[in-house]
Amino acid sequence: MSKSKDARRLEANEALAVCHSIRTSPRKLNLVAQSIRGLNASKAVAELSFSKKRIAKVALAILQSAIANAENNHQLNIDKLVVKEAFVGKGLVMKRMHARGRGRGARVLKPFSNMTIVVAERGE
Length: 124
Description:
Layout: E1 14-22, H1 26-36, H2 41-49, H3 56-72, E2 81-99, E3 105-121
Antiparallel strand pairs: 1-3, 2-3
């Protein structure tokens, strides 16, 4: 008696890549995610390659992973791929102390983010 296999949450023409614990705030990472939503996969790669934001390199690696998953695991045509979804969520927050004047301390929050990119094969 084994547990029944869960149904796939994505459609047959979709593939995704997820990255946890990215060392940046979700607000900053969401700016990068907004820039690639709805774009063709090749245009999204170009957009992230030439972006001036530091975290764009991590987002580019996630996008390339999603494209590779689509090609290798789901046999999708990479020339027809579109970034269907790119969303960001909160991760853990490291709490640190910063010494201040008169023997006091201030809290420093170091947030982490999670990013998910879903690519889909565009129909004709």
